[in-house]
């Protein structure tokens, strides 16, 4: 099976590992207790608590599998060294339509647009990869083509 390398920052990998630990050591035993308690209440065929606990167990087990796979296939990016061009782990400040925006370029597993963490695989992230200060890029957006100018790479 061909495994895809997933790029993450050290902080991102630490968060994923912490989530996995919480699911395995806290959430999994809690839901197992809920299932046991619901079974002890008798007939499970029409037991809403049992059904709810089984659904939560299914979600937890799926997320555990997903996190184990991500962690196994992840590669930490070296964001400590000075960057001359944009790469995973960089914080990039760009100029767009008279405004400055700052984005943290991260791996797909840790992307969160609300926190201005964009994946290197997203349209903007992909366009920024490898660019240097002063470079201009055009990105297609729902409102039309937008031109970004790289101002700073940290």
UniProtKB/TrEMBL annotation:
Q: Which GO terms describe its biological process?
A: DNA-templated transcription elongation; regulation of DNA-templated transcription elongation
* KW Transcription (keyword) present: yes
Q: Where is each Transcription elongation factor GreA/GreB C-terminal domain found?
A: 82-153
Q: Which UniProt keywords apply?
A: DNA-binding, Elongation factor, Protein biosynthesis, Transcription, Transcription regulation
Q: Which residues form the Transcription elongation factor GreA/GreB N-terminal domain?
A: 7-76
Q: Which Pfam families match?
A: GreA_GreB, GreA_GreB_N
Q: Which InterPro entries match?
A: GreA/GreB_C_sf, TF_GreA/GreB_CS, Tscrpt_elong_fac_GreA, Tscrpt_elong_fac_GreA/B, Tscrpt_elong_fac_GreA/B_C, Tscrpt_elong_fac_GreA/B_fam, Tscrpt_elong_fac_GreA/B_N, Tscrpt_elong_fac_GreA/B_N_sf
Q: Which GO terms describe its molecular function?
A: DNA binding; RNA polymerase binding; translation elongation factor activity
Q: Which family does it belong to?
A: Belongs to the GreA/GreB family.
Q: What does this protein do?
A: Necessary for efficient RNA polymerase transcription elongation past template-encoded arresting sites. The arresting sites in DNA have the property of trapping a certain fraction of elongating RNA polymerases that pass through, resulting in locked ternary complexes. Cleavage of the nascent transcript by cleavage factors such as GreA or GreB allows the resumption of elongation from the new 3'terminus. GreA releases sequences of 2 to 3 nucleotides.
- What protein name applies here? Transcription elongation factor GreA
From which organism does this entry originate? candidate division WWE3 bacterium
Q: Which gene encodes it?
A: greA
């Amino acid at each position: 099976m061909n495994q895809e390398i997933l790029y993450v920052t050290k902080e991102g990998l630490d968060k994923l590992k912490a989530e996995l630990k919480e699911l395995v050591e806290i959430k999994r035993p809690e839901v197992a207790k809920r299932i046991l308690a619901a079974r002890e209440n008798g007939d499970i065929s029409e037991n809403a608590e049992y059904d709810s606990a089984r659904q939560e167990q299914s979600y937890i087990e799926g997320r555990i599998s997903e996190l184990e796979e991500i962690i196994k296939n992840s590669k930490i990016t070296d964001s400590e060294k000075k960057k001359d061009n944009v790469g995973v782990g960089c914080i990039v400040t760009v100029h767009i339509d008279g405004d400055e925006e700052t984005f943290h370029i991260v791996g797909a597993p840790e992307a969160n647009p609300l926190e201005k963490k964009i994946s290197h695989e997203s349209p903007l992230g992909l366009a920024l990869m490898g660019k240097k200060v002063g470079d201009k890029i055009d990105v297609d957006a729902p409102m039309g083509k937008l031109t970004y100018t790289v101002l700073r790479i940290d």
